[in-house]
């Protein structure tokens, strides 16, 4: 299949690479073209505008935030200005509101397909894909999905439903981190190490990747460099809150998460991992990083 | 080993039964003696006081709350009034404060060994045991633990450490329930069913028993009869809060949990499951049970 | 002084009327011109565009939200397209972000002058005015302020500072309402009427207008018709949160207020007063409106 | 009237002194008798036990907490062991639960009469008295109340109602402090000084003693020595929470207050004023005491 790909960050590059590996013909675009070099060396063609990348049957975008997606879609020489009418597959974590506007605004079909998985999972073609949109368009995307992910969840006909599920997932992760941080801080003040608590949790009822991954990060206080920076986490929680606001849904745990993220950013700067909320929890209990009082 | 067993509720009866099955000699006591019948039929001897049950090498107590444990231990004809000096193994979910007082007050060794697992796990001898106390005493308890559980976590030398870990675990469960309830309510208002969200979560990063078990309960709104009643959940969160208070550890997610449990009890009565907090979440979003507005 | 006035809602009309009463020459504009009739009858001139209203020394805008202010300022035939360079005095409750953009974008001087006071206070020329901007411009506005308010607080040189103080004030009001609602609900469940509690509070340490006014509303459950509708309150709390987000300031009480406002809107609809959060508090305690269980 | 007085702390001494000044005959008791010297010099008689102090028509107790009140009442040689049957007037800030037990346990009449007012107000006989109990007993107490306070609020027939109102009042004060602290921190990060914000608030809708007193303390960061120490504030919020728990009333603002008090105590120690929660608010926003970043 002839596929356009817009946005070659860490995630985008890994996904695009797997598409080439699966035999697809790729036309790629990125704001700074140098990020495309490795893909070009493997046979991808460089587009000079998002519109040019949107000349095939499918165009995929994988970008940092709403603003970037708006620019490459609605902007000058954006995807919508292309003569072709490709299916636009948006994999970015964006607001449900933008997903709805993208749905309304497309000339061709629009599919939301955000993913769960860190860059390593993207490289290994092990992403979980949350897909929503017209079922015909989803069917047409199957060759793409099978090349990059381990499982596709079809969420519904309305694209923004997939974005909502993605946002709920990120909320759940952040909630698990904060709950663990609170429990580990309490345990530590009672002379049980965080590592010991994590061992018990993941060895019993909480034997899931999210607790294993973040339990280890929290126990070792590996907050820098950030795997996922706190301001990005805050941005995502803000997207959840915008959906909750529009849908009139009070979410008190979400409120706690936002305050804790603000707190750690105010105290530790913008470069810390979102799991660094543990430092805010610890500080409020009179503990410093590293366990010293 | 000659073992006394005090407290034959659902959990205690299942544990005692497995001890008999493993060949131990049991002397049992319960406030209402009729609960002991099935065990006596299988060879257990009935004690008329907790003190009488405390005549062997080990006496286990498995009771509802601090007050019940205080009564059978410090009360008239309680465990401490026995002539023998058995190891007291307290499996109840009690406060760290009481565990410390039990440690100080015992004539023999004292071990805290609270468990994770519902009655079905107790029957199947699949409990997870959190054990803390003098290592000699813990060694002496191994035949007991191996007869009733699938794995023992040794937490430390101070018995109350095991209770603290147990409380942290219950806090983590309740936090997972509340977070799921918030996410599912948001999803539902955005036209994604709770069941669908649970499928995605448990199929990706949240593939742990706690999300599978409670995800299903929440999706089906199976809150009655209660598997673990909301007032018991509130009691446990209160024990966590007491520890957090004593250890000067602010836990904002815990605060949310307590308010939500109060809310669902105020609205639905004392008989509802602790996962019924979902009803409070839903109501605050303008939804009724069953999804109707 | 020749003054333009843009925005003739309840507040704007009352203020404009007092300016005429003080002898100023008014040119007024409103989206629906019929709102201007009473003022025209008293000598005001009707402008057909905001730009036309901005032909004198001062132009005042008093509008519902950021969007409305943006439109009359930056929009076609907006204030900025006027040939004259009047001082723009913005009295609306807007975001600090917009105030900063208005400051940067004006051709003439820009002053923020939001007010405290309900329509009755506006009619009586008893508003409290929070003014910030270049001191020369503030001096030039004194004749305006003295005609409409009882006291001017000069906050600083940067206009958005006045908006920030206004937002803080609205946050404080909402916080006082929520705290009273929680206390009154607790009291009532303990058989002390809300009215009695309010009498004690306002008769002792809380002898301030905000407790007198809202204490009475809460005690009598006078939530409809809305004096200040919950969605407007939510909008204001959202503006506070945006400032708090930009300034990296966690505000946990603010988070509670937003969730409670969402809750009452989800349950009671958009027409209820912002003090109707008391109904959400009551419902979470198992009470209905009117005190029945 | 012959009056016994138990508990000669700062508040108790000031109140007892005013009773002597009004011509009453006093028998006083305190755990450490040296606190009684000034009163004895003015004609009071020293009792060697609380029971001995309870030999007149009325016995007043003014103590630090539930435990102290329980000891002087139910303890050996406590008030209840006296041969006389005086009216027991309990002015301490205690739990509603203890007030109910005191009501049930008294041989004579029992009245709860907690007060609003700091030591200076007690000295000036300007206390606000919240009184509840049988109306005959309240009538009999009028000579006492008029000698020590500026106004009596009769709350009801059940003594614990007065305690509940007192607790609600303390909750309201703490809520006002926290809300101010949040608003002042936000203002400061936006370059408006806390003092300036307080001036606006107290000059407009918040012209009440609580905002004047604490606004000044917060603006000047006068948290040591404590006027009312954070652990006492936490104890009071704990009493409110106990009542809220028993009455099944979720109070999310109260939950915030408790976490903030825990936080400031964990960070600043036990000697800080309860208004020191502002330091926790500031720290979470990345500010240090004294305004430095």
Summarize this, please?
Chain A is of the alpha/beta class. The first copy, chain A, has helices at residues 10-21, 37-41, 50-53, 66-74, 96-105, 119-123, 135-148, 159-189, 194-203, 209-220, 230-246, 252-268, 277-284, and strands at 2-6, 25-29, 45-46, 58-61, 87-90, 110-112, 115-116, 127-132, 149-156. In chain A, helix 8 packs across helix 12.
Q: Regarding quaternary structure, how should these chains be classified? A: homotetramer
Structural class of chain A: alpha/beta
Distance between the termini of chain A: 59 Å
- Characterize the overall form of chain A: elongated
Which two chains touch over the largest interface?
A: A-B, 65 and 65 residues
**Helix content range of chain A:** 40-55%
Average of per-residue pLDDT values of chain A: 95
SS field, number of helical segments of chain A: 13
The radius of gyration of chain A is: 20 Å
How much β-strand is present in the residues of chain A?
A: 5-15%
Question: How many distinct beta strands of chain A?
Answer: 9
Order of helices and strands of chain A: EHEHEHEHEHEEHEHEHHHHHH
Largest sheet of chain A: 6 strands, parallel
**Major sheet: arrangement of strands of chain A:** 3-2-1-4-5-6
Low-pLDDT parts of chain A are: none
């Amino acid at each position: 299949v002839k596929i356009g790909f817009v946005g070659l960050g860490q995630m985008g590059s890994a996904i695009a690479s797997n598409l080439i590996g699966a035999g697809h013909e790729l036309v790629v675009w990125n704001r700074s073209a140098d990020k495309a070099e490795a893909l070009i060396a493997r046979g991808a063609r460089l587009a000079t505008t998002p519109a040019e990348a949107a000349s095939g049957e499918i165009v995929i975008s994988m970008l940092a935030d709403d603003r970037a997606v708006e620019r490459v879609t609605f902007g000058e020489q954006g995807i919508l200005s292309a003569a072709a009418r490709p299916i636009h597959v948006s994999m970015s974590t964006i607001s449900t509101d933008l997903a709805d506007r993208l749905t309304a605004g497309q000339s061709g079909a629009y599919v939301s397909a955000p993913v769960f998985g860190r860059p390593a999972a993207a490289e290994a073609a092990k992403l979980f894909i949350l897909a929503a949109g017209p079922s015909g368009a989803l069917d047409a995307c199957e060759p793409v999905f099978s090349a990059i992910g381990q499982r596709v969840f079809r969420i519904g006909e309305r694209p923004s439903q997939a974005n909502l599920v993605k946002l709920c997932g990120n909320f759940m992760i952040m909630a698990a981190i904060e709950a663990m941080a609170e429990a580990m801080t309490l345990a530590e003040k009672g002379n049980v190490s965080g590592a010991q608590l994590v061992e018990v949790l993941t060895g019993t009822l909480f034997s899931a990747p999210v607790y294993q991954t973040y339990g280890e990060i929290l126990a070792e206080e590996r907050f820098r460099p950030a795997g996922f920076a706190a301001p990005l986490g805050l941005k995502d929680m803000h997207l959840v809150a915008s959906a909750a606001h529009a849908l009139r849904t009070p979410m008190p745990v979400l409120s706690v998460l936002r305050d804790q993220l603000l707190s750690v950013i105010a105290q530790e700067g913008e470069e810390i991992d979102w799991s660094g909320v543990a430092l805010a929890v610890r500080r409020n209990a009179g503990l410093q990083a590293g366990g010293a009082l």
